[in-house]
Automatic annotation (TrEMBL):
Keywords: Cell membrane, Membrane, Transmembrane, Transmembrane helix
Compartments in which it is found: Cell membrane
Entry's transmembrane regions: 90-112, 118-136, 196-214, 234-258, 264-284, 296-314
Similarity-based family: Belongs to the UPF0718 family.
Bilayer topology: Multi-pass membrane protein
A GO CC term assigned to this protein in UniProt: plasma membrane
Originating organism: Actinacidiphila alni
Entry protein name: Permease
PANTHER family, alphabetized: PERMEASE RV2963-RELATED (PTHR42775:SF1)
InterPro entries: DUF318, UPF0718_permease
Length: 345
């Protein structure tokens, strides 16, 4: 019973931290789908030029979404006419280049992880853009767009084909604050929640169980703790794999990152783990429903490579500068109240 309560406590801590980000992210997604004109999205994010990807990254960082919400918002942008690469850059920035993630990393793990996150994030976006330019075929992209326009993942799939966008003229504020605008945003908001709530709840319980029940000795053996060279090479490769199986997203994966860091994973491995929050199994399933199975596999491969490269980049850059912190300084939140106290500092 004590072990179960411990796992539930950690689950509650993670849920406490990410709920507000989910609400914000889905609200933004609903506004984009219901109110923002297609012409505006095309003008801002309609291609994959470096300046456009920089703009997409800045907008993503400003949106401050949980991974699930970021995926929904990226799909909304793509459906509205954004370039797919720009939409994915927005998605990465929305979960990995946001202020609250940097603050929590600094409080729980050290400012070096905050610096690594904001250093590795742009590296990941650049690598992903190059991979897309080299490997993404027009046929696959067309299929993904057709699937994105066809259905919303989850229990509200029957309503997915409904176009709830506001047709009226006038300014953005006028359309948003109108009766039709409010109704449309509310409908899309509820549909987006219904699409992922089951995956989200399952993911939080799994992450709490992993953090509470897997002993440190397992992690130390698995991450080659005590073998510096092997650990540095192994960490960025295996970090995203752990993330795929951990189920927890965005800011909510920081507590599990602390567990891995204290368990012996390398600095770059932790960063690669954090960057792979968009590859967890529930989100891969959402990619499949949003864009089709082939695109989901393509995103799995390219996001994994980008996360690994970013992990190696910060591992060797920060190691060379002597900026890797002491593992003993990391702190694991164990209850919603304790987590709230930490994040309120």
């Amino acid at each position: 019973m004590h072990a179960v309560l411990h796992a539930l406590s950690i689950t509650g801590s993670m849920a406490w931290e990410i709920t507000w980000a989910l609400i914000l992210g889905f609200a933004l997604s609903a506004v984009v789908q219901a109110v923002v004109r297609r012409s505006t999205i095309v003008r801002l994010l309609g291609d994959d030029r470096p300046s456009t990807l920089l703009r997409a990254s800045a907008l993503g960082a400003a949106s401050s979404s949980c991974s699930y919400a970021a995926v929904a918002l990226a799909r909304s942008l793509f459906r509205k006419g954004a370039d797919f690469t720009a939409a994915m850059a927005f998605e990465i920035a929305s979960t990995n280049l946001v202020a609250e993630l940097g603050v929590i990393l600094a409080l729980l793990m050290g400012w070096q992880f905050t610096a690594a996150e904001f250093t590795g994030g742009p590296v990941m976006i650049i690598v992903l853009a190059v991979l897309f330019r080299l490997a993404l075929r027009d046929k696959l992209l067309r299929q993904a767009r057709e699937q994105a326009d066809r259905a919303v993942a989850g229990s509200m799939e029957g309503h997915a084909a409904m176009d709830m966008s506001v047709r009226g003229q006038g300014s953005f504020a006028r359309r948003l604050l109108s009766g039709d605008g409010f109704t449309a945003v509310a409908h899309v908001f509820v549909m987006e929640w219904a699409a992922i709530v089951r995956d989200l709840v399952i993911g939080l319980f799994v992450a709490g169980a992993v953090a509470a029940w897997v002993p440190d000795s397992f992690w130390r053996s698995f991450f080659f703790d005590g073998h510096p060279v092997a650990s540095k090479l192994w960490g960025p490769l295996v970090g995203p794999m752990v993330a795929v199986l951990s189920f927890v997203c965005s800011v909510g994966n920081v507590p599990l990152a602390v567990v891995l860091w204290k368990g012996g994973i390398s600095f770059g491995g932790v960063v690669a783990f954090l960057f792979a929050d968009l590859l967890i199994l529930p989100i891969l399933n959402i990619y499949r429903r949003y864009y089709g199975a082939r695109m989901a596999l393509f995103l799995l491969g390219t996001f994994y490579v980008a996360a690994v490269v970013a992990g190696y980049a910060v591992e060797f850059a920060f190691g060379g500068l002597g900026l890797i912190p002491d593992q003993a300084d990391a702190t694991i939140p164990t209850s919603p109240a304790a987590y709230a106290e930490v994040t309120a500092l």
